[in-house]
Amino acid sequence: MKRLIIVLLLGFSALLPAASPPTAVRAEIDALLQALAKSDCEFYRNGSWYPGSKAASHLQRKLDYFERKGLIRDAASFIDAAATRSSMSGETYQVRCPGRPAEPSAQWLSDELEQVRAGPGVARH
Length: 125
Prior knowledge:
The protein is of the alpha+beta class. It has one domain (about 25-120). About 55% of the residues lie in helices and about 10% in strands. It contains five helices and four strands. A four-stranded antiparallel sheet has the order 2-1-3-4. A hairpin with a 2-residue loop joins strand 1 (about 40-45) and strand 2. The longest helix has 17 residues, at about 50-70. It starts with a helix and ends in a 7-residue tail after the last helix.
């Protein structure tokens, strides 16, 4: 009987919505998306370059999906799960800013995260 109760509880817990990341984590992720959207950088995804604003919208949709799955614990897990490569093709995302060579999106976002954590007034892009 005890085993049945445990199995039922585990089954019902799988139906509950996943918890959202803490507010501070969400603020960091939102800051990353805003930085990308406001930048003059382009975002390479599945064979095409997109403006930062379209890239941020795309990554927001992926963030929403991965949050529902409970896979976003911090900004680094967001970068790894949602913002590094295409879920469809597996191709690595790239960011290209004016006057600079393209770089993997994970590197650009990680560098930007350092700037976010350093505080306002420190601009990289």
